Amino acid sequence: MKGNVIVGQSGGPTAAINSSLAGVYRTAKDRGAKKVYGMLHGIQGLMEEKYIDLSEHITNDLDAELLKRTPAAYLGSCRYKLPEIHENREVYEKIFEILDKLDIEAFIYIGGNDSMDTIKKLSDYAIVMGYPTRFIGCPKTIDNDLALTDHTPGYGSAAKYIGTSVKEIIRDSFCLEYSKGLVTIVEIMGRNAGWLTGAAALAKGEDCAGPDLIYLPELTFDLDNFMERIRELLAKKPSVVVAVSEGIHLEDGRYVCELGANVDFVDAFGHKQLTGTAAYLAHYVANEIGCKTRAIELSTLQRSASHCASRVDILEASQVGGAAVKAADEGDNGKMVVLKRISDDPYQCSTEVKDVHKIANDEKLVPREWVNAEGTYVTDEFIAYIKPLIQGDVSPVMVDGIPRHLYKPSH
């Protein structure tokens, strides 16, 4: 590489997002990049000329290893939607003026669907205007809903945490007995895709029966049918554990969480804040049956639990970061790195690049055939798909009994 590289992080963070950042940094330096800049708070920060020289913060191999074990977006994230080029050309002129000043050869953006929209628009503008900077997307999302890639970095660690947490919740739910039983509702992220919620089935094994019911957002949620199944289960056992997606919805399209409270917050990409699904269902069950209920919302713990990260996930995250730099160095533009599964046993996966125009603003959903006929559990095919992604552990660097992270720069 003859010029410089700039990298940013966007959208919701993961336990593996900083491993991708480390992969970008190491590969860029190995390929001769003069400087590797980090945008503070993604494209939004870049437009305010907020960036750092990463070599001043990652000074040795220990820093790089700590970075890979540090949750949240080290550089800071954003949810900023670039306007269409014809709507606001000045935004693009400003961005490219900054990139030109920094002599940026490669622009790497680590993110999900909305971040790939940014890569698409910037690469299109660069091509039309004849700018030499190349734009490559590096996949990241716990939701696992990016098109054309087998899976996304961040998903394996989140799935591992969910499977572990649900198993522990199930164990806890049998500690006490209540006269009318106990129903525990666990709310899991994922919006319109059920990849994360399906991971609750990982709790099932020789020492655990797993959750009793799993509801994914790909299928319409029937409240009456749900209640019928809860009653049937309580007639047979003292404790019932149900995993539900935050995005389950009724036949009329309303999210279940909207039944209990108004959802006012909407981000720059038009996404409603989904929260309160478990709380609503637990309250509903308690009123209908009179049993003890608990609502557990895993919330941001799913994406920040680096102490429970998957080794496969961390390694692949670093791998796609390096592959993004390699793709840009070899002339690719307007592409995203994808993971291509070669085999399950032994598990093998490689990287390649795909046109970002076929990925941005699309959602990969759980196939219908990977959910049982009743819509209340995932199939063995789903489990076979997910199990290789949660293998191995990444030991935190412990200091005084608590994990040490790489201290993020001042934002």
Automatic annotation (TrEMBL):
Residue numbers annotated as active site: D143 (proton acceptor)
PANTHER family the UniProt entry points to: ATP-DEPENDENT 6-PHOSPHOFRUCTOKINASE 1
Binding residues annotated for diphosphate, in chain numbering: G12
Compartment list: Cytoplasm
Catalysed reactions, semicolon-separated: beta-D-fructose 6-phosphate + diphosphate = beta-D-fructose 1,6-bisphosphate + phosphate + H(+)
Cofactor(s) for this UniProt protein: Mg(2+)
UniProt keyword annotation of Cytoplasm present: yes
MF (Gene Ontology): 6-phosphofructokinase activity; diphosphate-fructose-6-phosphate 1-phosphotransferase activity; metal ion binding
Domain Phosphofructokinase: 5-327
Superkingdom in the source lineage: Bacteria
Family classification: Belongs to the phosphofructokinase type A (PFKA) family. PPi-dependent PFK group II subfamily. Clade 'B2' sub-subfamily.
Function field: Catalyzes the phosphorylation of D-fructose 6-phosphate, the first committing step of glycolysis. Uses inorganic phosphate (PPi) as phosphoryl donor instead of ATP like common ATP-dependent phosphofructokinases (ATP-PFKs), which renders the reaction reversible, and can thus function both in glycolysis and gluconeogenesis. Consistently, PPi-PFK can replace the enzymes of both the forward (ATP-PFK) and reverse (fructose-bisphosphatase (FBPase)) reactions.
Annotated protein name in UniProt: Pyrophosphate--fructose 6-phosphate 1-phosphotransferase
UniProt main location, coarse: cytoplasm
Binding site for Mg(2+): N113
Metabolic or biological pathway: Carbohydrate degradation; glycolysis; D-glyceraldehyde 3-phosphate and glycerone phosphate from D-glucose: step 3/4
Keywords: Cytoplasm, Glycolysis, Kinase, Magnesium, Metal-binding, Transferase
Cellular component per GO, a single term: cytoplasm
Site (Important for catalytic activity): K140
Organism in which the protein naturally occurs: Sellimonas intestinalis
GO BP: any one term: fructose 6-phosphate metabolic process
Binding sites annotated in the UniProt record for substrate: T141, I142, D143, M189, G190, R191, E246
Pfam families in alphabetical order: PFK (PF00365)
Regulation of activity: Non-allosteric.
Record note on quaternary structure: Homodimer.
